[in-house]
Amino acid sequence: MKLARYRDSQGSVRVGQVVDERLVPLDAAGGLTLFQVLEAADPAAFAAARLQPAAAIPLASVELLAPIDSQEVWAAGVTYKRSRSARMEESATAASCYDRVYVSPRPELFFKANPHRVSGPGQPVRIRADATWNVPEPEFTLVLNTRLEIVGFTIGNDMSSRDIEGDNPLYLPQAKVYNQCCGLGPWVTLAAAMPPRETIGIALAIRRAGATVFSGQTSVAQLARSLEELVGWLGRDNSFPQGAFLLTGTGIVPESSFTLEPGDLVDITIDGIGTLTNPVVQG
Question: Into how many domains does the chain fold?
Fold first, then answer.
């Protein structure tokens, strides 16, 4: 089951199930949040009991929103070999830090965004005005309830200013956390509806003036850590009263000569979920 947040014709934010090219609303009275569905003991059954099939509408006719209510967004780093090598390319002085964290029992985890910094499908993601080397990072993203159970999955775009982080790893928050620094969407696929993890592919395409200027592929099978391991570390001495999203790292990083430009379109496709598309703006 795929669950989306959207704005209806009256301007209200609603939750619906995506079925092919149609959207089936939940809760005819409105007011139901995606968090409430995800927090249920059985989210799929909870949602199914509230479907309004007679009110189904074309998916193309609605404004899809980022599938987040008030959850925190966190991210893991250096979980793929390509990510390790890319981070080592950014900074010779910090290269050993990235090399060590790849094999360390403790993963790199960092706060990425709160909801007002998140962009949904079709909404802009941003490159900082004071950065010169910027890339998207396509990431398989875990959707966690307050009990830190993986209840679903979505697509994440961990926008990164590589020159800022490369200048000094202590600048990581500035390289990662700013307005429109994170894309999420286009919806949440509940866990039971996903294909086997080892078969899930991830693809990135960056389009500029109608031409594809970069593309790459990887798979969840290339992750150096298990999803449960990452969640376990995230939950150590930490609580999430509204649930959380956890981006699991990227295995696709453009070559060092590439940087995003305003007007680029970033497409991230993950098997079992769909495609998240965001235009790029700056400043």
Answer: 2
